[in-house]
Structures are given as structure tokens and as C-alpha cells.
Amino acid sequence: MADALTVPKQTWMAVLVGAAIAFSFALACGMPFAALGALAVLVFPIRHARWLAGLGWLANQVIGFGLLGYPLDVLTLAWGLALGLSAVAAVGAAAFAIRFSGTVRIGAALFAAWVAQQGTVFAASLVLGGTATAFAPDVVWFIFWTNALGFAALLAVQVLGARIGVARAPFAQAAG
Question: 33, 55, 63, 126: most buried by Cβ count inside 10 Å?
């Protein structure tokens, strides 16, 4: 099967998840889900990109609930689920955006992923509460720059991996 998730792909996904979850320790729930989703789409077929986003979300939740002491209440669990949905939404939007040609698709993938991820979080906040604080201009700006810097860091890891021959260049994403 041409779309199989081979051992090198699995290993490289683990490297990317590890790089992304370092943000979980530094930023708690500010993990750059849009950055991870955009990079995943630039590197992997869509099915694998969804897996990578899901693994990043799962790792973030394990760190949050297991190590950072997030409370085990219904509201916090619901927000965790909302973040998972936002990570998947980021992948879908990035997959649509990479239809642009050339290097424009890199920025388009990140921006589309961020808009979809934040749009999903906004929709969840209408149900779960917290809209006023979660979408204050300084918070939105912080989330945007967290994702932009996270994307730059993950892109650098990906490019380095491609240069040493253990990963695909982000500019050579396969359709799927």
C-alpha cells in the first residue's frame, strides 16, 4: 500500500510530536495545534496528517492532566475535546490551503490552520463559556504568534530532518 505509515514515517511523526509537545510544558494549553496541523499537511498525506495532529493533541492532554494537574471535571474535559476538534479542523483547513502554488502554500497552510483552529475554539467557547477572556485581542495575538513561532521551529526541524535524510522536505508533500 503506497499510503502505508512506514517505520521511518512513524519515527519522524514521533520526532515532530516530541518537538510540538515541548510547547505543552512551556505554554500548557497554548500548544500550537495550528502549527502542527499545517506542518503535518505539508509533509504527510492527509490521513497521516490527521494522525499526527491527533497524537499531538493526545500528548498535550496527557501532559496537562497527568503532569500539569488539570482538574478532572466535566468542563475541563470538554475543553480538552474541543481542542482535539480544533486540531483536526486545523488539518482540514491546511489541506485546503496547500492548493496554492509555490511557497505561498506554506503561509496559506499556517494561516488557514490557525483560523480554523481558533474558529473551532471560538465556537466551543460559545457553548462552554470563556469567550470574553479567551478572545481578548492580546490573547488572540499571543496564540497567533505562538503558532507562527511554533510553525517556524517545527519547519526548521522538518527541514533539518530532510537535509540529513530522515524526513521529506516540507515542500514535497504527497497528495493524499
Answer: 33
Which three three-digit cell numbers place residue 106? 506554506
Which parts of 44-73 fold into alpha helices (H)? 46-62
Full-model pTM: 0.87
> HSE-up of 56 (CA within 13 Å, CB side)?
38
Report the alpha-carbon distance of residue 9 to residue 168 in Å, rounded.
Answer: 9
What does DSSP assign to residue 122? Answer: H
Per-residue pLDDT tens over the stretch 19-46: 777 877 776 667 899 999 999 999 889 9
Contact 60, 83 (CB under 8 A): yes
- pLDDT for 108 equals 95
Exposed e or buried b for every residue in 123-144, given b needs 16+ CB within 10 A? Answer: ebbeebeeeeebeeeeeeeebb
Identify the CA nearest to 120 among candidates 159, 142, 151, 90.
90
- Cα–Cα dist 148/23, whole Å: 13
Share of the chain above pLDDT 90, in %: 48
Q: Which amino acid is at 48?
A: H
